Amino acid sequence: MDVFLAVLVLLVMIIVSNLLNRFVPLVPVPLIQIGLGMTAAILPLGLHLRLEPELFFILFIAPLLFNDGKMTPRDELWKLRVPILLLALGLVFVTVFIVGYFIHWMIPSIPLPAAFALAAILSPTDAVAVGSLAGRIHLPKKIMRLLEGEALMNDASGLVAFKFAIAAMVTGVFSLGHAVINFMLVAFGGLVCGAVVAFLIIRLRLFIRRWGMEDATFHMLLQILTPFVIYFIAEEFKVSGILAVVAAGIIHAIERDYMEFSTAKMKVVAASTWSVILFILNGLVFLILGLQIPDVIHVIYVDTAFSNWLVLGYIVAVSLMLIFLRFIWVYLFLKKTDFTSSLLTSLSGVRGAVTLAGAFSIPYMLLDGSPFPQRSLIIFIAAGVILFTLLTATFVLPLLTKRDEGGREESNQLQEHEAKVRLIKAAISSVKDEMTDENRAAAQSVITDYKKLMKLGDALSYNNSWLGRAYREMENEARMVGIGAEREELAQLLAMGEISKEAEYRAQQMLNEMELAITNRFRLRLPIPIVLMKQIWSKWVKNQKTNSGSCTEMLRLAKIRTSKAAIHAIQQQITEKNQAAADTVISHYQAIIDRLGRKPIQPHKVELFHKQKRELMFKAMQVERNEVQLLFEQGEISREIAGSLRKFINYMEATSLEEEPI
Question: How is the chain split into domains, by residue range?
């Protein structure tokens, strides 16, 4: 029960961390999660999870690196193979040697083999932490690919070097020649093992499908188990489990690109399932890291052998040494790398949970039974370097990348109009996937609406005002004028008794939705609950004893009257400056009048049609929201454009609600 409650609390913290990031976007999610983990460990909640390194690697690192191997573009990795190997192998071993001697010189109480072990576990960068930078720090694409490729490979080299250093410390025996040969066997063996087992699993999936078993859930479970099985098998053969799962991920990516035996349903299930798994695992990694830090700090804090300020100085010195050495290595050995790119690459070398998990795997005793020297101090320094590098990347990198942000947005980032086209295409694709014989008419209507929207965007893109803030402001002003005129017309209709109080209330609710979409920024955070509340209210109204048919007819006639009033009010406000924006809004109202002017012959069929269309629209708009988040996380759009696109989707959502009572 205690384990269940601990896991439940951690899952809630993942949700809270992402909500906090929405309101405090300057602080990345990993830092928030580390802070929440530390808070949970300090408060008397009884939430304490002991970090088991072996379990941590197989449970968290294996699936995360397997997915990274699948998703990282192989052609780009191959083009960068030389700089990646220089960082993942050359820099790791140089770091172990130089930083190891530096730590032993600075802290003589840490023996040289133990100092090498600490330097080894500090050498790998963290793939999860590196990925978290992309959403808010728009690094050049080449640097991001270099960091991703390095993070995939250097875990293995760093951990192997760490194991040899620990073995030398525990036993007192070390052979350089034996270590080099053993490293080659472990690394190459891990790659071969991962590729072979992945190939066998793929063949197994093909064999099962040939027997007619197409169940997507079964195949998804087999895919989820793949990284755990491969990691376990590789470790049993005494080769690198980390490189094995990376190789397996690459093999699965090749299978996905060239064999294409997955059905459309399997692809959708796989994408959805992995997105949830990765979301949870990424959050748990940093929360667990945060949970460990208070205990590590407490051990050093109460230890009178060291001054707390002196230990903090050790952390800063080691961190700066790692950054400086990384900068020199990148600047001297990576071709076509200027000073700025070298600095960005150096500061992006964030350490993460792999470092802390390795530090916790240090044994308590040596072979002769004596305590491992300065074990607590080593773990504390490792935790401190993780926080230092993460904070540096979070707050220093944005200052360096702001200088040429405008030029980079033109070359690497989508403009707002281009992003809207991407959203519309994604929405159309999702509607096509949902199309059946029963909802075909509604689906085709939604697709037609989206295509009209795309053509309208293409036409208006010739005018710079379509992409400019001034045009959007003038368009919103015209919409607000129209909404105001509609409210006045509704009040007159109610006063003259031409519509019922119920119909007037429902019409006002739709206008409220429109106004929220245009003006209220908080609506960007909570679009779905408002829609759900409106649907609940509509169902409640339909269950009342009032005549729903007459209410619907009143709403239809009232909407025609209010739309004409809105057009008249907007026309009174037209100037030469806002002509294009006003015409766009007037065209929208005119389309409503034309549609509602055709009185339906079979109301029940029309009601079903609009229900199906509404459901498809909401699903398509959720796909658009997911696409916006994906584009932002991949660094293809800025935060400002992401906010503008979300507002654009919310307006579409509000306008679609106008069809609900018809």
Answer: 50-412, 416-659
